[in-house]
Amino acid sequence: MRKFFTQSVPTYFEVIKWLAKDSLLRFKKRSLFIVLVGFAGLAFQAFAIGQVLYYAKLLDKGGEFSFGGISLYPRESLFLLVGVASGILLSIAISSYLVFKVKSKALVLSLVYERFLIKKSFEAWVRGSAVDNDMACVRYPEVVFSRIINSDCKLCSRAFFKTATPY
């Protein structure tokens, strides 16, 4: 177990660091948009839950709700019920739209990144060597490049998709 933590965990951190440098920093604006809109969707979900809890607390206490000089009793006011339900529905609708937007943009971005990685793999294959930013050129057999082209590009793209979206 100790061997796992001393040898494998630093390797995982290196892969995560490489993935962040290579993907998130390459598409800064798109990644920032995805993260910000994702958190906005999450905020609207939290706002809807807050509205539900606040209205439930008002119903439980039986007190009055005052807003702009108007006092309403939650147990008796149909207007307040419709207003709160409309607010919750609007918050959930906005949240759903933002989450959909984030998922679709992240999917498009993962496909763009996958295309970039495949192009990079083919270029390395044509040259006959694998080039990494931190490593020197190393000769690899054709089988290794076929594996990179067929699997690693898609896996890196999926990992990027998972790290970019907060859900």
List keywords for this structure.
elongated, 167 residues, 4 strands, 4 helices, two-stranded antiparallel ribbon, two-stranded antiparallel sheet, mainly alpha, 6% strand, 78% helix
Summarize the structure in words.
This protein is mainly α and 167 residues long. It has one domain. Helices cover 78% and strands 6% of the residues. It contains four helices and four strands. Strands 1-2 form a two-stranded antiparallel ribbon. The chain has a two-stranded antiparallel sheet with strand order 3-4. Helix 1 packs across helix 4 and helix 3 runs antiparallel to helix 4 (142-164). The longest helix has 50 residues, at 78-127. The protein is elongated, with a radius of gyration of 25 Å. The model is unreliable at 130-141 (pLDDT under 50).
Distance from N terminus to C terminus (CA atoms, Å) equals 31 Å
In what order do the strands lie side by side in the largest sheet? 1-2
User: What's the overall geometry?
Assistant: elongated
Major β-sheet annotation: 2 strands, antiparallel
Computed over alpha carbons, the radius of gyration is 25 Å
Report the count of strand segments: 4
List segments where confidence is low: pLDDT < 50 over at least 5 consecutive residues.
130-141
Our count of domains comes out at 1
How many helix segments? 4
Written as H for each helix and E for each strand, in order along the chain, the element string is: HHEEHEEH
Return the average pLDDT rounded to an integer. 77
**Structural class, please?**
mainly alpha
Helix content: over 70%
Q: Beta fraction of the residues?
A: 5-15%
